[in-house]
Fold:
Amino acid sequence: MARDIDVDVAKGICIILVVVRHMEVFYKICVIPFTYIAVPLFFFMSGFYVRNDGKFLDFFANNVKKIIIPAIIWAILSLCYNIPLQCLNKGYYNIEFDWVSPIPANGPLWFLFALFYAKMIFFFLDRIRITAVIIVSSLVIGYLGVNYEMPCFLNEGFAAVPFLIAGKLCYRHLNYLRDNIYLVLLGVLSYILFVSKTLEFDIIPISVNQYKPYYVVCVLGVMLSFLPFLKMTHYLKSGLLSQIGLHTMGILCIHVQICHSFAVVVRKLMLFGSDGWICLSLVAFVLVVIISYYITIFLEKKIPFVFGKF
Structure:
């Protein structure tokens, strides 16, 4: 299947928004609400190309190589990096193990575990072959994920299932959905409601028990808010963004440690919260994206297995 450049551009924008979520300056200048769509959209786009052909054991082993092995490798590398960084900065590092969130050294890696769980559930749901049953089942599983705490990021994996399934079901109709002006306008309205916090949804480790009364409404709102985003990326023909989108796995695994390093440096150079701190932090944000991208390119060429490429 030929690559869809629009999807690569969308992934490029999303991974930049993920980096935004891990730069403290954007909390200070209240940009974070605009980034909420990034992670659900990653799960949605992951559904575009996922296949369940063949036996489950082959599917399982393939995804262990592509997803779980890189997650474990980067969890260990991040811990080795963070301990001396934290010792230099605070004089201690807490390595207490938590079954709910077992990789505090590199928080974003929860996404890989959640994606793995969601794909395993997808394998069996997709075999049902009855679309209505698949949709209802995915929503029930997603509801369990956002309302009941489970170990090792299982609840995030359950919460991701409706988006993965939606991506799978919608991909063949994506052009129609993206070009339907009424659905796009509803998507813009949905996004405004999320940014204004009238509606709330986010697949993150603290999402448990937030959406019981209006879960389906929130999920539908997220689905609709994808459309103006994808409409925008359809017309945003950027070679740079598409290249970044091709290397999201590496940037996801690498960027947090670089963010932390720059945060330590910027805080030592500028008074926290000052105009100088904000300006220097924004420069650091650009550098984090650039450095993460080029480290990813280098590692993909030299030791590709760290990103699941065997």
Remarks:
- Residues 9 and 242 are 4 Å apart (CA to CA).
- The chain has a mean pLDDT of 88.
- The chain has one domain: 5-307.
